Amino acid sequence: MLTMVQSIADAQRVALEIDKNVLLLGEDIGKNGGVFRATEGLWEQFGSERVIDTPLSEAGIVGSALGLAMGGFKPIIEIQFLSFITPAFEQIVSHVARMRLRSQGVFSTSMVIRAPYGGGIGAPELHSDSTEAYFVHTPGLRVVVPSSPYTAKGLLLGAVASPDPVLFLEPLRLYRTQKEEVPSDYYTLSIDKATVVSQGEDVTLIGWGAMIPLLLEASRLLMEQDITADVIDLQSLSPIDEETLFASAKKTGRVVIVHEAPRTCGVGAEIAARLSEEVIDSLEAPIKRVAGYDVPYPLFALEHAYLPSVKKVVQAVMELVYFQ
Amino acid sequence: MLTMVQSIADAQRVALEIDKNVLLLGEDIGKNGGVFRATEGLWEQFGSERVIDTPLSEAGIVGSALGLAMGGFKPIIEIQFLSFITPAFEQIVSHVARMRLRSQGVFSTSMVIRAPYGGGIGAPELHSDSTEAYFVHTPGLRVVVPSSPYTAKGLLLGAVASPDPVLFLEPLRLYRTQKEEVPSDYYTLSIDKATVVSQGEDVTLIGWGAMIPLLLEASRLLMEQDITADVIDLQSLSPIDEETLFASAKKTGRVVIVHEAPRTCGVGAEIAARLSEEVIDSLEAPIKRVAGYDVPYPLFALEHAYLPSVKKVVQAVMELVYFQ
Amino acid sequence: MLINHLLPCGTLTDAGSSFWRTLSINEKLDLLFFLRSVRMLDRRMVLWQRQGKIGTYAPVEGQEAAQVGSAYALDKKDWVFPSYREQGVAFTFGISTTSIIQYWSGRIEGCKPPIGYRYVPPTVPIATQLPHAVGAAWSIKKKKETGIAIAYFGDGATSEGDFHEALNFASIFDLPVLFFCQNNGYAISVPFAEQSATKTVVEKASAYGINAYQVDGNDVLAVYHVVKTAKSKRKPALIEAVTYRTGAHTTADDASRYRPEGEVRIWLNRDPLYRYEQLCLKEGLLDEDQIEKQDQQVAKELDRTMREVEKSHPNPSSLFTHVYHQIPDWLKKQQEEAANDVNHGSIHC
Amino acid sequence: MLINHLLPCGTLTDAGSSFWRTLSINEKLDLLFFLRSVRMLDRRMVLWQRQGKIGTYAPVEGQEAAQVGSAYALDKKDWVFPSYREQGVAFTFGISTTSIIQYWSGRIEGCKPPIGYRYVPPTVPIATQLPHAVGAAWSIKKKKETGIAIAYFGDGATSEGDFHEALNFASIFDLPVLFFCQNNGYAISVPFAEQSATKTVVEKASAYGINAYQVDGNDVLAVYHVVKTAKSKRKPALIEAVTYRTGAHTTADDASRYRPEGEVRIWLNRDPLYRYEQLCLKEGLLDEDQIEKQDQQVAKELDRTMREVEKSHPNPSSLFTHVYHQIPDWLKKQQEEAANDVNHGSIHC
Ligand SMILES: Cc1ncc(C[n+]2csc(CCOP(=O)(O)OP(=O)(O)O)c2C)c(N)n1
Ligand SMILES: Cc1ncc(C[n+]2csc(CCOP(=O)(O)OP(=O)(O)O)c2C)c(N)n1
Ligand SMILES: [Mg+2]
Ligand SMILES: [Mg+2]
After folding, report:
1. Is C249 in the pocket of ligand 1 (CB under 6 A)?
2. Does the beta carbon of D181 lie inside 6 Å of ligand 2?
3. Which end of chain C is less crowded, N or C, counting CB atoms within 10 A of the terminal residue's CB?
4. What is the tens place of the pLDDT at every residue in B29-71?
5. Which residue range is the domain that position B239 belongs to?
6. A21 and A160, same structural domain?
7. What's the number of domains chain B is made of?
8. C154 — phi, psi (to 5°)?
9. Distance of residue A166 Cα from the nearest chain B Cα, in angstroms
C-alpha cells in the first residue's frame, strides 16, 4: 500500500534500476529526498552520479538535461513546484519541444519533467498554480496527470518510456490522501488515453488530477437525485483523447469540465471547443466549465473560495439537467 | 499617410511628449531605431535617458521595467520578436501580472510590452510564432492586437493610458502593407472592445491582427456566392469582448474563428467555449476553427502551408453553410 | 576580507570599537531591541505554525543580525525587496507584526505596505526581486531622489539567471542598488560549495565590476556599518553576509537530513544575539532585568496581535480586487458568483 | 593578455613561429582553404539573399579566422552548438553547403546533421545553446568519451541568464565544455561597453572559477592553438575571440546607423584572410595562381549546389514529421488536411 508520492518515488526507483541511462536532476532531490520526498531513498541507492542535486537554476537544469538527452541519457527532472518552471520556459518551449523536429529526428529530446502542482493544501504563494494550459498549447510536448497511486506509477513509467518529452504534473493535494496497492515491479499505463472512472447516463464530468476525487463525490451526491454521471479522468492533457470524450458526450448529451486553472484559455476551453466542433448536435445543453476564477491563485486563506468544489460541480450539473 | 510601423513609432513619440514618465526600453531601439524601425527617430528626439538601449537580457528588461513602474515611471518595452519574450516569462506571469494585486493596489504595474509577432514574411526560425494564448491565460494582463495603422496608434496610446500592464502584439506582416491617414495628435481607442469591420448575415468570421485582411478577402469571395459575413476584429484578446461576439453569433448562427497560433488551446478555443456555453441554442452549425496546425511554426519555406489562408477560411464557411 | 566588528564572545574588534563610539545610545539600544524582538516573533511563528494558527513558515533564527543590522541602516524612503525569510528586515524596517502574521496566514492584506513605505511584498520565486530592485533604483536615479534600493536574497539565488542580469544592469546603468545576500550556507539542502565554484559570493562581483563587501552576518554592528557605508556611496554593491540558519528551511523541512549536528553546534556558538547582548551588558547600557521587561512587553503585544488576526476573516471578494486597476465588469460577474457560493469554506462540500 | 600569433601584416610573433613549426603542410593549407571558402560562401549568400534566392542572412565576414580556427581544432566526435552566424564553423567542421544553403532558404532539411556528426542546428534564441552544451559535455563525461562540447555565441549572449547558469553548471560539475565567444563588439547595434561593465568577456570567468583565454579572433593560428589547448585540458573554459563583423548584422540590417565608418576601416585593416594568405605566400606554401584555381573550384561547386537546392521543393508533410517520435494518429489527420490543401503556395488564395 503506497501513497501517490511513494508510488512516484517507486516508479523512479524502477526506472533507475532497469535503464542505466536514466538520471534524476533537481533541487534538493538527493540527500534531502525531495521537498515532498518524491525521490526518497534514491540518492542513497543510486548515488550522486545518477540522482543529482543541482544548483537553484531551472533554465540550467532543463537546458543541460536536454543536452544530456541529446547525448543519450534519459533525464527525469523535478521542478520543485510548477510555478518555478517559468525560468525554464524558454528552454522548454523553444528547445525541448522542438529539438527533435529541428534536428529532423537525429537528436533525442526524451525526458520527463515532473512537477507538483495545484492547490488545496494551504501552501505559500505561487506554490499552488495550475498552468498546464501553457504546455498543452505547446506542440511537441506531452502533458500527463495522474490521479491515484496506481496510475501515478504506471503513467510515470509510461512517460519515462516515451521517446517524446513529457511534462508530468503531480497533483500535490493527492500526494498522501490515499493509499493503494501498487505493484512493486515495472508496469506502464498508456500516456495518451483518458479513463472513464465511473459510468452513468445523464452527464459527463471531465477532469484530471485532484479534481477526480471531487468529481466522484459529486457523482455520488447526484446519484441521490437519480442523476448518473460518466466521470472521465483525462490523464493525458496533451494529446487529448477525443474519442473517449466524444463517445461519452454523445451518450449523455451534457458535459461539465472541471479544472483548477483560471477558466479563460484553460484546457477546459479546448475540450469545450472540440466538443462544440464535433458533437454539437448530440448536446442537449450548453457545455459548462467549472474552473478557477480569472485571477491569480490566491494566498491560501482564500484558496477554497477560488477552487472548484463539489457544490459548484453539482450546481453546474443541475443547471444542465434542468436546461430549458 | 503612415504604415503601421510608422504609426507605432508616432504613437510612442506622442506618448513620450505628453508624459515625461514614459520611458522606452529595449534591444536596439535607440540609435538603431529598432530592428523594424518602430522607434525610428525617438532616440534622436528624446535622448538616451528616455529611449534606452538595454543589454540583451529580456528578464532584466521586464524585471527592471517593473521596478521602474513601481517607482512611478511608465515603461514601454520592445521585445524584439514575440518568441524572445520567453526568457522574461517568469517576470511577466509571476510579477508583472501580480504585483498590483500582491501589493493590494499600492505599487503600479502599468507598462506596455510591445512585440512584433506572427508569420508570413519569410523570417528566420522563431521569428514568426503566435503565442498570445499564454498571456490570455494569465490573469492580470491585458492583450491587445491592432490590424491597421490607424487602430495601431489609437490602441497603443490606449494601452499606454491603461493602468494595467498590456501586452501589445504587432502583426509584423502588416507593418508595411498598408498606408493610411493617421492623425498626428493624441487619440486613444478603447482597448477592450472588438470591432465589426464588415457586416453580413450568414456567418461570423472572428480574427485579429494579420488575419483581418485575409478575412475581408474571404468575405469578398463569399459575397460572390451570396454569402455575407460579419467580420470581427477582436483587437482585445484579453479581455474578450463577449457581447460583440455573442450578438453576431446569434444573428448569423455560424461562426469561424481564425488564428495563426496552433489550434489546441489557442485563443480560438476560448472563444468557441464561450459561444458554446452562452449561445449554443442560436447556432445552426458547429463552431469552426481555422488555425495553425499543432506543430511548431515551420521554417519559412513551408509557412504558407502552415498558416490559415483565404481558401481555408472560405472552405470552412462553406462547410458550415451546407451543414446537414 | 570578512568584515568583523564583534567577536562571538561579545568583544569588539579594533574596527568595531571605533564604529561603536560613533553610535548613539538609542542606536545601540534599538539594535538590541530589534534583535530580541525578531527572535521572539520568529519563535512564536514556528510555534503558531505547529498549533495550526498560520501556514508553512520560513524561520529566521540565526540570521537576525544580518537582517536587523542591514534594515536598521535603511531610511524610510528606501526601496526594500525582501525574499520570504525577511521577517527580521520587515520588523526592523517598520512593518507591523499584524502584516507579518497575516502574510503567513495566507492573507493578502499582509502584503500591503504601510502608507509611504516602499516595502515590497515578499518575493517567493528565487532571485526574481533583484531586477525589480534595479528598476526601483533606476527610478530613484532618474528622479534624483536620495534613497537606495536594496534586494534581499540567499546564496541559492546566485545560481539563477536573474541574479546575473540584475547585477549587469545595475552596473551598466550605475544605479544605487544594494544586493544583500544572506549566505546561510544552504539552498534548502544544497550546500554552497555545490552551488557555486567560487568559495564566496563576493567573488562574483568582479564579473560586473561592482563594489563588494563580505561581512560577518552574525555581527549586527559590522552589518549595520557595511550597509551604511555601501548605501552612502549610491553605487551598485554586492554584500555577502556570512551567516547560518540554525533551524530548518521551513516548518515543513527537516534540516537534520542534510546538515551534520556538529555544524549546527558551531554556529550556535556564533549566535548573533548572545554576542550583542553581552556587549550591551558589559557596556552597561542596560541590565538583565530591563531586557526581561522589554521582552515581556513585546511578547504581550505579539500575542495580542495574533489573537486579533485570528478574529478577522478574509473576504472572498478580495480575490478580485486589484487584479486590475478597477474590477472590470466581466470579472464582477465572477466576483458575484464567488459571493453567492456561500459554502466557500470547504472544497468538499 | 590577448593571445596573438600572426600580426595583421602577416608576420608571425614569437609564439606564432613556434606554433607554426608544429603544423603540417596539410594543416597550413587547410586553414587557408577554409578561410577562403568560407568568405566565398558568405559573400555568395549575401548576394543570393539580394537576388531573393534565400531568406534574411547573417554574414560572417570579418569573423572567418575565429570560426575556421576554432572549428579546425575540433574532432568529428565533438559536440558543436552553433548560433546563427556560424557558417564558417559549419563549413570547416564538415557540414555540407547544401545544408547551409537549405537552412537559410527556410528548409528544415538543412538542420539535419550528417550521420555521425554531433553538429546541432543553429540556435536562434540568444545564449540558450550554452546549457545544451553543458548537458552534452556532461554526457561525454558520464560515458567517459574523449571529446568535448563547444558552444558558440556572441558578446550579446553574455548578458543573458543562460550564460550565467551554463557557466556555473559547467564549473560545479567540472565538465569538458568550451564556451567560445566571438566578441565582435556589438549585439546588433549595442556596443560591448553598453552591454557589460567589464571591458572584456574573459573577466567574467572569475565568477565561475574557470579557465579563460582571450585571443585575437582575426588570427586563425592563435585561435586554432588556443582551442586546441583548451580542448586538451577537458575542463570548462571561456574563450573570447576578439573580432569584428565588417558587414551588417543581417541582410535586413543597416550597420552604418550605429557604427562609425572609421571603426570599420580599422578592422578591415586587420582582415583575417589577408594576414594568413600573406603568411602562406611568404612561406611559399602555394602561389597566387594556385589560390585562384582553388577558388574557382569552390565557386563552381557553390553555384552548382545553389542550383540544386533551388530545384528541390519542400514537402508540406514535413511540417508534421519529427514533432513527435512518430506522427500520432490525431496529428495525421492534420497532416492529411495539409496535404489536401493543394494551394498551399500562397496565403492569399
Ligand atoms: C525559482 C524558484 N525555484 C525554486 C524555489 C523553491 N525554493 C524555495 S526556497 C529555496 C532555497 C533558497 O535558498 P537560498 O536562496 O539560499 O535562500 P534561503 O532559503 O537559504 O534563505 C528553493 C529551492 C523557488 N522559491 N523559486
Ligand atoms: C533571446 C533573444 N533575444 C533577442 C534576439 C534577437 N537578436 C538576434 S541576434 C541579436 C544580437 C546578438 O548579438 P551577439 O550575441 O553579440 O551576436 P552577433 O550577432 O554579434 O554574432 C539579437 C538581439 C534573439 N535572437 N534571442
Ligand atoms: Mg541559503
Ligand atoms: Mg556580437
Report:
1. yes
2. no
3. N
4. 999 999 999 999 999 999 999 999 999 999 999 999 999 999 9
5. 195-321
6. yes
7. 2
8. -100, 175
9. 16
